[in-house]
Amino acid sequence: xxxxPEYSRHRPEPVLDDEQERQREALRDSADSIARLLDSVxxxxxxSIRVGLDALLGLIPGLGDWIANLIGTTILFLAVKLEVPKIxxxxxxxxxxxxxxxxxIPGLGDxFSIWFRSxxxxxxxxxxxxxxxxxxxxxxxxxxxxxxxxxxxxxxIGTFALILWGFKALWNS
Length: 173
Hints:
Number of strands: 2
Helix content: 55-70%
């Protein structure tokens, strides 16, 4: 019986030949390209601020954020193909979920997308967990995901409560 916690067990590194490693690097490069396209493809003249299609599509009311995040899910599929640990894929999905949720707020959502850059975060996570240095989730990854899930759940409950309060106020007036 191994007393070592599951998250700290070392998964044996697969032995990859040069061609397999080139294919994996091509997938990582694809994730990086998608992330740059969505989060930082254009620099705003006169500033160091970079924006991508995520913020620009977010200007389309209702539909733009969903389209941008649908494109961003491509990075999740690449992560699955590259056998990223499941907890990291959850973390990546939470990044997209937060971006989608806050992105639906007109104006503020676009500014948030420019700041948060969920796709670049996800591409970095994918690269981190498919490099030769590590292929396992850390306790910090678990803590981060749990914190985000609790926060996202709290925001959803708060939003629902605010909507109910609004309907009640309208009904009583």
